[in-house]
Design goal:
Layout: H1 2-10, H2 15-61, H3 67-83, E1 89-98, E2 103-113, E3 124-134, E4 139-147, H4 157-175, E5 182-189, E6 193-194, E7 205-206, E8 210-213, E9 220-223, E10 232-233, E11 256-257, E12 270-273, H5 276-285, H6 294-304, E13 322-330, H7 343-359, E14 362-369, H8 374-380, E15 387-390, H9 396-408
Parallel strand pairs: 4-5, 4-13, 7-11, 13-14, 14-15
Antiparallel strand pairs: 1-2, 2-3, 5-12, 6-10, 8-9
C-alpha cells in the first residue's frame, strides 16, 4: 500500500488535461461574451428602431390624442417591434410629452439573458434606447447676404448667382407645407446696403452724413436729408457696426447713418417674407456695382433675422422649433467702408460681425466665389463643412441646391 501511494504522489500523467479543464472555463466564458454581446447589439438595433418609431408615432398623433392614449400607443408599438424577431423583453419605458415645446421623448430598456457567458457570472446584458421627436411645424428664417459689387459682373458670376438663388427659392417654396413656415430675406450689399425710401421717417435713422462735390470755387459740402435720401445706409459707428444692438433715440452712435448712395443702382433689401414672387423679383433686380464691404452685409443679414428695429419681421430666437440661417456670399476682399479702414481692419470687423451672428444663434453658410479671403470666410461659417470654395461660377447652382435641401430637411431631433 505504501508503494502505491508513493507512485501516485510522483505520477505526473494527466496534468495537461487537468490544466486545460481549469483554463477552459474562462475561455468558454470569453467566447460566450462575444456571442452574447452580438445578440445584445442586435437587440439594441431592434430597440432603437422601436423607440424611434414610437417617438415619430406620438409626434404624428399628438394633436388628436391625450397623453395617456399616446403612452399606451407607444408601449404597444415598442412591444410589437421587439416581438418581431427578438428574444428580449421590455423591462420598462417612459414617454414624456411637452406640449408647450411640442416635443416627445421616448425611452425604453430591455435585458438580454446570456447563454454561454453565464459560466463566468454574466447572467444578462442591459440594453437601452432614447429618441426625441417633435410635432407641429418646423419653421425656418433664412437671410441671403449676397455680394452685389462690380466684380460680380465678371466670369458670369452675377448670372450664375441669380440662377442659383432662384433654384434655392424654388426648393424652399416646395418644402414649405404651411403659411410662413419658411421665410427668407435678401440683403444685396456693396460698400453700403439700401432700403426703400419708405423708411425715411424711421426713428433708428440719423441724417448727419456729408459729401463734398465740385472743385475750386464750385466746391460745396452738403448734408444728407430726408428729401435727398435715396435709401442707402452706411456702417453704424463702432462697435455697433458689427452687432445688432438696439438703436436708441438720442444716442447718435447707435443709430443707422442714412447716406448718399455710393451705388445708386444697388438693389434694396427684401425683409423676411414668404412672398416668393417678391423674393424672385429682388433676385432678378440685382445689379453688380461698387466696392466690397462684407461687414455691412453680415450685419444687415443679422438684423433681418433679429426681432425689433430696423427690420422687425423676425420671430424671437427662443421660438420653439425655429432655426435661423444665413448664407454669406462674396467674390472679393474687403475694400471700402465708411471709416476708410484698411483691409486688415475691415476683415477684423467682418469676423466680429460673423461672431455676433453666431452668438445670436444664427447658423452661417459662407461661400467664396473665385476670389476673396478664404480664411476669413471659413471662420465665418458655423462649421467647416458649411464653407464652400467656388472656382467656377457654374458651381453655385449645385451648392445652393445642396444647402437648400439641408436646411429644409426634417429629421428626428435626437
Amino acid at each position: 500500500m505504501m508503494s502505491l501511494l508513493s507512485r501516485f504522489r510522483t505520477d505526473r500523467s494527466g496534468n495537461v488535461a487537468m490544466m486545460f479543464g481549469f483554463a477552459a472555463v474562462p475561455l468558454i466564458g470569453l467566447a460566450g461574451i462575444v456571442v452574447d454581446y452580438g445578440r445584445a447589439t442586435s437587440v439594441r438595433t431592434t430597440l432603437n428602431a422601436a423607440v424611434d418609431s414610437a417617438a415619430l408615432m406620438v409626434a404624428r398623433e399628438a394633436s388628436r390624442l391625450t397623453d395617456s392614449q399616446l403612452k399606451t400607443r407607444a408601449e404597444a408599438l415598442i412591444r410589437a417591434n421587439l416581438a418581431g424577431g427578438s428574444t428580449a423583453t421590455l423591462d420598462g419605458y417612459t414617454v414624456t410629452i411637452d406640449r408647450a415645446a411640442r416635443t416627445v421623448n421616448v425611452s425604453a430598456n430591455s435585458t438580454v439573458e446570456t447563454s454561454v457567458a453565464r459560466v463566468i457570472g454574466f447572467d444578462s446584458i442591459p440594453v437601452a434606447s432614447t429618441a426625441q421627436a417633435a410635432w407641429g411645424t418646423n419653421t425656418i428664417e433664412l437671410a441671403l447676404v449676397l455680394d452685389n459689387t462690380g466684380s460680380m459682373a465678371s466670369s458670369n458670376k452675377m448670372t450664375e448667382l441669380k440662377k442659383a438663388s432662384l433654384d434655392l427659392l424654388k426648393i424652399m417654396k416646395d418644402a414649405s407645407t404651411a403659411t410662413d413656415q419658411i421665410r427668407i430675406s435678401i440683403v444685396p450689399f456693396a460698400t453700403q446696403v439700401r432700403l426703400p425710401t419708405s423708411y425715411k421717417d424711421a426713428p433708428w435713422l440719423r441724417y448727419d452724413q456729408t459729401r463734398t462735390t465740385g472743385s475750386g470755387g464750385n466746391r460745396k459740402t452738403e448734408t444728407i436729408s430726408k428729401a435727398t435720401w435715396q435709401g442707402c445706409i452706411s456702417d453704424r459707428d463702432k462697435p455697433n457696426d458689427v452687432s445688432d444692438a438696439s438703436a436708441v433715440a438720442g444716442a447718435t452712435a447707435t443709430l443707422y447713418p442714412a447716406d448718399f448712395c455710393a451705388q445708386s443702382t444697388l438693389t434694396p433689401i427684401r425683409p423676411l417674407t414668404s412672398d416668393w414672387t417678391a423674393l424672385e423679383s429682388t433676385v432678378n433686380a440685382m445689379t453688380p456695382v461698387g466696392n466690397t464691404n462684407v461687414t455691412i452685409g453680415a450685419a444687415w443679414g443679422m438684423a433681418s433675422l433679429s426681432q425689433g428695429a430696423p427690420l422687425p419681421e423676425a420671430a424671437a430666437a427662443t421660438t420653439p422649433r425655429l432655426t435661423k440661417y444665413m448664407i454669406l456670399l462674396t467674390d472679393g476682399d474687403n475694400t471700402q467702408n465708411r471709416f476708410g479702414d484698411g483691409q486688415t481692419t475691415m476683415d477684423q470687423r467682418t469676423a466680429a460681425a460673423c461672431a455676433s451672428a453666431k452668438t445670436a444663434g444664427i447658423k452661417i453658410y459662407s461661400i467664396r466665389v473665385i476670389n476673396g479671403n478664404s480664411s476669413l470666410l471659413r471662420g465665418c461659417a458655423s462649421e467647416t463643412s458649411m464653407f464652400y470654395e467656388v472656382s467656377n461660377a457654374s458651381q453655385l447652382g449645385p451648392i445652393f441646391q445642396q444647402i437648400a435641401r439641408e436646411i429644409s430637411q426634417i429629421r428626428l431631433t435626437m
